[in-house]
Every structure is written in C-alpha cells, then in structure tokens.
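QA checklist item 7 of 12: single-chain prediction sanity check.
[x] sequence parsed
[x] length recorded as 256
[x] structure emitted
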Amino acid sequence: MTRNLEGKVVLVTGGARGLGEAYARGIVAAGGKVVIGDLLDADGEAVATSLGDAARFVHLDVTDAESWKGAVDATVAAFGRLDGLVNNAGISASGTPVADEPLETFERVVRINLLGVHMGMHFAIPAMRESGGGSIVNISSAAGLIGMALTSAYGAAKWGVRGLSKIAAVELGRERIRVNSVHPGMVLTPMTAPTGISLEEGAFPNNPFQRVGRAEELVGAVTYLLSDDASYTTGAEIAVDGGWTAGPSIEYIAGQ
C-alpha cells in the first residue's frame, strides 16, 4: 500500500471494531498515526496495542462535549497535532415506520449519529487550524442518499451528516480543512451481523454486485480522502455500496 498518510495524525471514532477498526488499521498501514476513540475500552485498547507505537486508545462518548475535548487533547498530547478526523461511531435502528417509532428511539439515534458528528467537528477544527489544515471524513450511509423505508431515525441522521458535511466544506475551504462524506452500503460488521446477512455471492441480490461488502473494501475511500491525494476534494459524497444507490440489479428487477 502506498504510504500516503505519512506524517498524518487521525482520530477515528468507533474504532474498536467493525468499520472503525478497519479504518484505523488502514491509516497505520498507509503510514499514519491513529487515535482510536470508543466506549469499548477493552476492544479499543487491544486494537491500539496490536498497531504498536503508531496507535493510541482514548475512551470517547461521542454525545458528551467534555469527552470530545478530552479525546482531541489526548490526540495532540500523544502525537503533537491533529490532521484528520473520521466520524464513524454510530448505532443502527430500523424496522419501524415513522408513525410507530418511539420518540426516545429517534432522539437517541440522532444524538449519537448526527449530534456526535457535529461535536467531533466542533472540537477537532481548532486543532486542525493549529496544524495548518486537515481532512474530516464523516461516515454517512447509503441511507443518507436515498429514502430507505423503515429507517426514519437512522436515515434522517445520515442525511443530516451528508448535509452537515457540505455546509462545513463550504465554511472551511479557505482554511484548508476539507470535509467529505462516505456512504457505505450493506457491509458485514458486528453491528449488521445480527440481521443475518452473509458474504456469500448472490446473498444480497438488490445491488449490482449482488453481495454485501467487507469492511476492508471501505478503507481505500477513507484513506484517500484523508490524504493529500484528495487535496482538491471537498464537499463530496462517495458511495461505497456495490452500486446499491445507483439502482437494483437486473436479476432483482426481473425477480419482482
């Protein structure tokens, strides 16, 4: 792998497992240094330890302002700067129509998946200014690109992440702080495994690839956006979804 993150320091939220862990490992493989922020202390410490001197773990609750401030301060204390933020932490809640979803469920999902992203940017931007610029990668979802039934809280939050990313990109462009969103489709992770999805070919027929993704297939998009290779890319939305948001597969349509 090209070491295109040499000298970069990146904070990754939800980095103890799943997609966040894959991003953290990809950042180190690309020559960067990473701070893993998560509520899962044991898992996060284990990932950081496995990555050696290029990684640290910090306990982070993305809904708590003081926790965010502490995570950013710990990153700068450990590695001297902050160049990148991957706002990845989130939870899933689906299967309930808008009319039936409990208000407390909606509020909890939006607080973690959208307010948490806003807080991350709020506390990371001053540190990036001190570093002379940076890159923020906000992890949205395919559900933030299309109207996906039975995902009202999750989808609304992910659409919000998409919009927030564009607003911040416009505001921060002159300061050399780039902001982009990545939109994963269905990917097998500890969060999605309970749905029964499988990596088997043909097991997810409603996208052109007819399969779900693997966590490592998201890493390239994220490391690209963090790197100077993407120096003229801001306000973009990158779907890494097997073509799901482009349209269903021919076989899926024919089977209707």
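[x] summary fact logged: The beta strands are 9-13, 33-38, 55-59, 84-87, 134-139, 177-184, 237-240.
[ ] second reviewer sign-off
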